[in-house]
Amino acid sequence: MDDEHERGQRDGLRLALAVLAAEEAKWAALLGESRSWRTNREREVRHKALQVAQRRIQTLLNRLSPKRSGAIDPELVAALEKAGL
User: Fold this and answer.
1) With contact defined as beta carbons under 8 Å apart, do 76 and 65 qualify?
2) C-alpha closest to that of 62 among 9, 20, 3
3) Which of 64, 66, 67, 61 is CA-nearest to residue 80?
4) How far apart are CA 65 and CA 8, in angstroms?
5) What does pTM read for this prediction?
6) Got the DSSP string for 16-77?
7) Dist. CA 20–CA 46, nearest whole Å
8) Closest CA to 57 of 33, 32, 85
9) Which of the pair, 5 or 80, is modelled with greater confidence?
10) Which residues have CB under 8 Å from 84's CB, separation 6+?
């Protein structure tokens, strides 16, 4: 694949990370707020699913990032900080 295509893939994954981070923050604020234990349990499961999805996308992003002598790509660091990871 050419470099431009790979950069586009990484940008798409970073966008997905940002969306998941925002969604996770929304559900984190709702944890334990309901009087119904079923609702609280569903919120906990949804929150955990979002965390798992973030980790999987992060793993994919790490695999697609160019390998450099052990140093982390600066654009990756900036995207992770923006997503709060």
Assistant:
1) yes
2) 9
3) 61
4) 11
5) 0.66
6) HHHHHHHHHHHHHHHTT-SS-HHHHHHHHHHHHHHHHHHHHHHHHHHHHSPP-SSPPPHHHH
7) 11
8) 85
9) 5
10) 21, 25
3-state secondary structure of 1: coil
CA dist 41 and 61 (Å) reads 30
pLDDT in tens, 28-64: 898 899 999 999 999 999 999 999 999 999 888 888 8
Cα–Cα dist 27/62, whole Å: 26
- Is the per-residue pLDDT at 74 higher than 80? no
